[in-house]
Amino acid sequence: MRSRHAAVEHVPIGREVSELPVTRQEGNVIIVPVVEEVLVVTKKLVLKEEIHLRFVDSEESVEQLTQRRVQRATVERLVPEQAASPAGTAEWTDNTKGRQQ
């Protein structure tokens, strides 16, 4: 009586392959490859566009009517013998209204 049995040994490989390996025989050992398809999701940076900002300086002359406000002050100094009286007088004129205060 003859009998034959197979001894099964699982050998982990963990290597990426580019194509499906074929079943092969090395000596009295038949090697059956077991493959698994793994979905790989990758993330890439893609330059979609560039925004170019260019600053352009410009200058234009503009004439605009404005109301000018003018104030004038007059200061009078006292001579030393008048030091007991107020320290001096000051007056100013607001030309926009045309009156003295």
Helix content: under 10%
**Terminal CA distance:** 139 Å
Q: In terms of structural class, how would the helical and strand content be classed?
A: mainly beta
The count of strands amounts to: 5
Largest pleated sheet: 3 strands, antiparallel
Strand content: 15-25%
- Count of helix runs: 0
Taking Cα atoms only, what radius of gyration do you get, to the nearest Å? 51 Å
Mean pLDDT: 82
What are the low-pLDDT stretches, counting only 5+ consecutive residues below 50? none
Helix-strand sequence: EEEEE
Strand order of the largest sheet: 3-4-5
Shape: rod-shaped
InterPro entries: DUF2382
Pfam families: DUF2382
Protein name: DUF2382 domain-containing protein
SSE inventory with pairings:
Blueprint: E1 24-26, E2 29-31, E3 71-75, E4 90-94, E5 99-100
Antiparallel strand pairs: 1-2, 3-4, 4-5
